[in-house]
Amino acid sequence: MVATFLSYWSARPARRVDGWSASAVLVCLLILGPILALCLTAFGDSNGLWGHLVSTVLPRYVANTLMLMAGVGALAVLFGVSTAWVVTRYDFAGKALFEWMLLLPAAIPAYIIAYTYTDFLEYAGPVQSMLRDIFGWDRPADYWFPEIRSLGGAMLVMASVLYPYIYMVTRIAFRLTPSSLFEIALVHRKSQFWSVGLPLARPAITAGLALVLMEVVSDFGTVEYFAVETITLGIFNVWLGMNNIVAAAQISLFGFVFILSLLGLELYARSRQRFAGTGRSQTGVAPLRPGFRGQLACQAVCILPLLLGFLVPVGVLLKFVLGGSIEGQASQLMGTVGSSVGMAFMAALFIVLLSSLIVIAATYRGGAVVRNLAVAASTGYAIPGTMLSIGVLMFAGVVDRFWGGVVGDPRASLLLGGAGVLMTAYLVRFQAVGYGAMMSGIRRLPDNMMNASRVLGHGFGDSLRRVLLPLLRGSMLAGGLLVFVDVMKELPITLLLRPFDFETLATYTYQFAKDEMLEEAALPALMIVVAGLIPVILMNRMLRRAG
Amino acid sequence: MFWIFKRVWFRIVCVAGLVSVMGAGQAAAAAEINIYSHRQQFLLQPFLDAFTAETGIKTRVVYASQGLAQRLQAEGEASPADVILTVDIARLSEYAELDLLAPVESPVLSTNIPANLRAGDNRWFALSLRARLVATSKDRVAENAISDIEDLADPKWQGTVCSRKGSHVYNRSLLASIIAANGPQAAEAWAEGLVANFARKPQGNDRAQAKAIFEGQCDIAIMNHYYYGNMLFGDKEEQRDWANAIRLVFTNQGGRGNHVNISGGGLAKHSPNREEAIRFLEFLTSPTAQQLYGEVNYEYPVNPAVSPGGVLSSWGEFKQDDLSIERLAELAPQAQMIIDRTGW
């Protein structure tokens, strides 16, 4: 009862506008500006194109998108939750290794894995060649082999690089589940997984799944390469094929609203479920030690996603790198590595600071307005990168023209023409990642912690510095590392909004990969993976401490 | 979190990052031009190097495949861009339609580029030509079995034809040329017939179609001519086999000629370095650069005074469809609708 009262008290809106809320609202508006610009575009006249689209391609696009979301979502949850459960609840040979290796696929961009799998599984690839050698087949007509460039193929490869989003958060949730609850399940002979682990981890799983689904909806590279006609591919056909940016903006908002309603449903469903532990020593239940067969099963559960999401694609890339001549490329790439890492680092820092501001203001200061704005501002993740960039460009154009008027020079620019526009776009897109990490961190803190500090006479800023920030350090680091890896991999926004002569590993890879020149693309692609490894390892160290 | 701010390395990285990010956007120094390019950097670089060597003018590039027109539009008067380069007419005319290009009255360009290969108001110029033609299997298709692009819809080729997706700009332009030649109904009937003949779902790029012929998945494919040169003379052995498995067919030689598309460019409306930019466009039509198109990527020159040279000449002359390039762009939306309806 007391806790309920206190939680109400802490969430009560501040009476007057304070600096925290005001700056959080400002940042949210900066993020929402480009999305709004896209909406305004969508209100233009699309010249009756919808009739044509609805009667021809749109039903197919929507059906494909839904199936892709369902398939990737189901597979990613299966991979993410099963591995998270196995590494937290069981003790088996190789567990320490799997724990962090399972995060590795996060470092591989989905479009790269599409290229590598096509190379691996196509007619001339090693798998089919080997089968032909074994069975003596000569022609494609002699046997049936699943086509990797298909809806099913896209589900498999996307799930195998996206499941770490779920694995990571679910693993923390499993670790933080009080051991007493597992013991209760044991006493009542109920399944520890189905009765305790899964229900309590559900908010974490959903948070991860939301990111996965948003990635699926906004993906362009993989679906284009696999010729799976999703809504995103439709946007590009309408925009580039029919010179109709209005209809393209309308289709992208259609997908966007769709994702929002999904998220809204889930938010509603769990609005009354919250769980905060106040004790310190309840968690950390001793893992079970299965027998030999059980250990084999645990290992198999971990090896499968790792194989699909990391070992095979990296193997294919390595084959190209070792087989080709890389001396010419290596020197060019050094500068590119620097700009990639520098950009990703700055973006991570920038986004984590602003997300923290938003999350803290939304939780402890502002009222419903700030909280709703904060949620709205984390939806940019669901918009395909190129369309988002166009929204950012329009928004930046308006800002710059205003600025040009203020300083009296039409050539003056605040955002465009430099890295400002790129940073803005990263913020719009990846705010969801920072926000998610910070929010899940702050949710786990008992409400009365800040209240206690305030009651003891510390001001808000003081309490923040002494109590909240030290406790949120892990979440900030986690958010920062996730954003870092995401920006390293990011392609469409960087490609379109970058300054002159600015090359990241992703854009460098793309100019070759676009033309299916895998040999040339392999080394920079591999470097994206290597650069992603460091944050992944750091993240793992942090996750261990979280438990 | 704050422990991290106290670390020296963290502060150094922050400052270095800030400097590099800010520095990336600095304005151009004198004698420099800024290029927005839809043409891949590695294909463009030889031209930039030759231009800088000849004139001393430096170049800076942003390469992207989509959206640069919207970027230019948003930047408006403040745009630093001087020159736009694209690899097809549809994209180029998008810039013209959005009024992002400035007309260029240059005697050099008018002499070097035939009238049907530049805009009537000189807002854009073709810089090289690409023929979209038919590749057939040397083993499985007789030498003169296919002569026109229309033949690909003949039911006798059922289950043998391969293509990249219809909505790719190269196929869209090809279909636009067929609409121009035969009318929209005939073009749609052709597209239906073509789709009915496919050996597999449209996928991959043009090189992947040659590979599919080599592997026996299909016998006939649609491709741009320069892929053949790149495969045959590139440094990848396996691709030489793919090229050797196919025969190129320049289509409609007894009629309107083979469909050609262009790579091209124009001057940005608010170009801050106008003079240098025009010089760059002129350079691209000069004999040196025109021959470079053949050497770098096996593309045909637009300058009638320049012979294609080397490999390209050895493939022989062919009759080009002399349909105005502008017409292709006008018909592109109609072509996309047919592509949507037929599911190419």
Number of DSSP helices of chain A?
24
Instruction: Let me know the number of strands of chain A.
Output: 0
Structural class of chain A: mainly alpha
Order of helices and strands of chain A: HHHHHHHHHHHHHHHHHHHHHHHH
Q: How far do the termini of chain A sit from each other?
A: 29 Å
Provide mean pLDDT of chain A, rounded: 82
- Multimer state: heterodimer
How many β strands of chain B by DSSP? Answer: 10
List keywords for this structure.
heterodimer; A: 547 residues; 24 helices; disordered N terminus; B: 344 residues; alpha/beta; 46% helix
Helix and strand topology:
The complex is a heterodimer of chains A (547) and B (344).
Chain A: H1 2-11, H2 19-42, H3 49-55, H4 58-89, H5 95-101, H6 110-121, H7 126-135, H8 151-162, H9 164-176, H10 179-187, H11 192-218, H12 221-225, H13 231-241, H14 245-269, H15 292-323, H16 327-365, H17 368-376, H18 385-407, H19 420-443, H20 448-455, H21 460-489, H22 492-497, H23 505-513, H24 518-546
Helix pairs in contact in A: 2-14, 2-16, 2-17, 2-18, 2-19, 4-8, 4-9, 4-11, 4-13, 4-15, 6-8, 6-15, 8-15, 9-11, 10-11, 11-14, 13-14, 15-24, 16-17, 16-19, 16-21, 16-24, 18-19, 19-21, 20-21, 21-24, 23-24
Chain B: H1 3-6, H2 8-23, E1 32-37, H3 41-55, E2 58-63, H4 68-75, E3 83-86, H5 89-97, E4 101-102, H6 107-112, E5 125-137, E6 161-162, H7 169-182, H8 184-196, H9 206-215, E7 220-224, H10 225-233, H11 237-244, E8 246-249, E9 260-268, H12 274-285, H13 287-297, E10 300-301, H14 310-314, H15 325-342
Parallel strand pairs in B: 1-2, 1-3, 6-7
Antiparallel strand pairs in B: 3-9, 4-9, 5-7, 5-8, 5-9, 5-10
